[in-house]
Amino acid sequence: MEDNENSTTTYLQAKNTALRLIARAEQCVQGLTFKLERRGYDAHCINTVISELTEENLLNDLRFAQLWLESRMRLTRTPQRLLASLCGRGIDRKDAEAAFRKVFDEETELALLKRFVKKTRQKARQGKSEETVRSLKYLLNGEGFSPQVIRRYFEE
Fold this sequence. Notes:
Layout: H1 2-24, H2 29-38, H3 43-55, H4 61-71, H5 79-88, H6 93-103, H7 106-119, H8 130-142, H9 147-155
Helix pairs in contact: 1-3, 2-3, 4-6, 5-6, 7-9
């Protein structure tokens, strides 16, 4: 009986800890799992808490990914690096790409591309050779910018 009470108490403590962390900032499954592990909760307890919070939609990796991307929009990064960073935080690639499509419409992606080009100091539209333009297009494609945004950039 006492073991069951300890288990219930531990579970409630873990859930309260998780709720406090979620109240402070949006969390992803992997990040919250890591934080609960660091606080000494066992795997079974953590899995139970994570499952319940996910069912209650208090923990949602897609929402986390969207908010994370929105918070980094102003930084000069590329789609490829943003997606890699999200995946590094435990977000499934499919969820990361879905979040990217929701957050980055064509105008937002174009602004990101322009910041990237400016940061890398490539001046493809200012009298540079056709080879340089081709090289820049290749670089932008490799960094994950969409073909329509790359085309639009060079048309402007």
